[in-house]
Specification:
The protein is α/β, with parallel strands linked by helices and 486 residues long. It is 24% helix and 19% strand. Helix 5 packs parallel to helix 6. The protein binds magnesium ion. Magnesium ion binds next to loops.
């Protein structure tokens, strides 16, 4: 059964009891009692095609490819919104971000954050006595009352928001951003991150992650590694500078891949391979206006900041030797919101009393070839609560809305972005993603019955979560946390 029971005993006592049970011939030992470690690696703006096994060009990702070979790759995995804060809110709560009141990307002066009453993945696993650690970009509220150490993480090291919200960013007019702090726990340990510091971020996060594994090897742990890269401005250490034929973006991804390798090596060194579920994905698609400093969602349409496939569909890999079928591929749709209830099921943790939106996808994750998505539909919101698309099975209904596009232009160069244009969907468009994921052939006229069915699903969702595009207010949306301190 998936729902394992936990012995509420220190890990060393559990190990001793298991060993004695094994010596006395009491069945297969305590494998079923042992709670898995969970390592969740989350990159920033890495596109669907920016991993070797997903079709990367101009750089290699041997460690990510190894995760795929030893585990599972999902070809139709999505974030709940294709933008930083909203995407992270969904990942950590199992809810659509608009349900928890987090939209877009929170700025340094934002007075809101993830509400402390929401239950994060870290708080979920703490029910079972896990050690919890985070390195990297938080972006769910800068005030100290919202930081990771107030939201279930025992320890934290990283940037509180994006690395471009920074006075040195070429796009930032003077005075736009305050100095970018580096935080440990809830304390600022570097008040003004410099360009030189940014070159070390991936290395520092990795060193901390490896030390966390070393320190917690004797008990179940949850480690959340949220890389600041490859979000612009792109920085890389000397270890990988100039290594990728693609250029700087490729160097940055190769360094992230190195980081994944260091984490896998730490798990191997400490004999934790069989006890650890490793998950890898990205927070949204590529920021295409940055041209050669952006990734690729090839062959998908558009990128970050849109509800098209290039925005929400991301590479997803999972490895758990002995539990996940090696080398498998899942083609069913799934979303970051599903990881929360799936992990709850794996460790026997109780779900929150409040409503969440994800569903347990363990049969998909373990590589069961007959497993199907448990969702009747997924809802793609963007901007300030705009329901822009509905996904059900192979069908995606794109609802009338405005979106940003480069309209065929190649994007910017070397860190300076090109300008987006605004395009509009003026009537519902229907795509069969099983037939073509590129969203080119609008089949709405041929399948009016499917359009009606997905519109009815959209209407149900609007009653629950609201929709700014049709001026509806939902009854099920909750409030974000609001600042109570200066
Ligand atoms: Mg992002």
């Amino acid at each position: 059964m998936r729902h394992q029971t936990s012995l509420r005993l220190p890990r060393w006592v559990q190990v001793l009891v298991c060993a004695v049970g094994g010596w006395l011939g009491q069945g297969p030992g305590c494998a079923a009692e042992r709670l898995p470690n969970i390592v969740l690696i989350f990159t920033d703006d890495q596109g669907y095609a920016d991993v070797g096994v997903f079709g990367a060009r101009g750089f290699t990702t041997p460690n990510l490819d190894r995760l795929a070979a030893e585990g599972i790759r999902f070809s139709d995995f999505h974030v709940a919104q294709a933008v930083c804060s909203a995407s992270r809110a969904a990942l950590l709560t199992g809810c659509y971000p608009n349900r928890v009141g987090i939209h877009g990307a929170l700025g340094p002066a934002s007075r809101i954050g993830l509400h402390p009453d929401e239950v994060t993945l870290a708080e979920l696993v703490q029910q079972k006595g896990y050690a919890t650690g985070m390195v990297g970009k938080w972006h769910l509220g800068r005030p100290s009352q919202f930081l990771p150490v107030r939201q279930g993480f025992d320890e934290y090291f990283g940037l509180p928001y994006s690395n471009d919200m920074w006075p040195y960013h070429p796009e930032a007019k003077p005075g736009t951003y305050p100095p970018l702090p580096l935080i440990e726990g809830d304390r600022v340990i570097n008040e003004a991150v410099t360009p030189e510091d940014q070159t070390q971020l991936t290395t520092w996060y990795t060193e901390r992650a490896v030390k966390f594994i070393e320190r917690n090897k004797h008990q179940p742990f949850f480690l959340y590694v949220a890389h600041s890269m490859p979000h612009v401005p792109l920085y890389v250490s000397d270890k990988f500078k100039g290594k990728a034929p693609q250029g700087r973006y490729g160097d940055v991804i190769m360094e992230i891949d190195w980081s994944v390798g260091q984490i896998l090596e730490a798990l191997r060194t400490h004999g934790l391979d069989q006890e650890t579920l490793v998950l890898f994905t990205s927070d949204n698609g590529p920021w295409l206006s940055y041209g050669n400093h952006a990734g690729s969602a090839r062959p998908l349409r558009e990128g970050k900041g849109t509800a098209w496939e290039g925005g929400t569909r991301v590479p997803f890999l999972a490895r758990w030797p002995g539990k996940i079928r090696p080398g498998s591929v899942c083609r069913e749709p799934a979303m970051t919101i599903d990881l929360f209830p799936t992990i709850a099921g794996l460790i026997g943790a109780e779900l929150p009393r409040h409503r969440i939106d994800g569903l347990d996808i363990w049969p998909l994750l373990r590589g069961d070839p007959d497993a199907k998505s448990p969702h009747a539909a997924y809802f793609m919101y963007y901007a300030q609560n705009e329901l822009q698309a509905v996904r059900s099975g192979p069908w995606k209904l794109v609802l009338p809305h405005a979106y940003r596009t480069l309209a065929g232009s190649p994007g910017g160069q070397d860190g300076i972005p090109a300008k987006y244009e605004t395009a509009r969907v003026t009537a519902p468009e229907l795509y069969d993603l099983a037939r073509e994921a590129e969203e080119r052939a609008n089949l709405a006229a041929q399948h009016p019955d499917v359009v009606r069915r997905l519109e009815a699903l959209a209407e149900q969702c609007r009653r629950d979560l609201g929709d700014a595009l049709t001026q509806q207010t939902g009854t099920g949306a909750r409030q974000p946390g609001r600042i109570t301190e200066r």
